[in-house]
Design brief:
This protein has 102 residues and is an alpha+beta fold. Helices cover 24% and strands 24% of the residues.
């Protein structure tokens, strides 16, 4: 029976790193991975990360226009429920919250 695992991330970077871990190292098909926001608005998460933060010189300062409109949700459809613990571990590695299975 198919299972869907879902988790919320504070930053787009954490969500993207999770997706890459799932696709590249765990061979989860990208067509089985879905990314959305926790709400109707476009969002880069709840916190600044990646390109929205300041870097070393000579890069510019932090951006002030990041769409911080809510958490990023990653969901994964799996046919083999035995893979659920590995996927949950990938979620945990990148600080997921509100991990759910249905």
């Amino acid at each position: 029976m198919p299972t869907t695992l879902k988790a919320k991330f504070d930053t787009r970077r954490e969500a993207e790193m999770t997706v890459e871990r799932l696709a590249q190292e765990m061979q989860v098909e990208r067509t089985d991975i879905f990314i959305t926001t926790d709400g109707a608005n476009n969002s880069a998460g709840d916190e600044r990360a990646g390109a929205d933060t300041a870097g070393d010189n000579p890069t510019p300062a932090s951006r002030a226009d990041a769409a911080l409109e809510g958490k990023i949700i990653v969901s994964v459809d799996i046919a083999d429920a035995g893979r659920a613990s590995d996927i949950k571990a990938a979620f945990a590695e990148f600080d997921a919250s509100e991990v759910a299975e249905r």
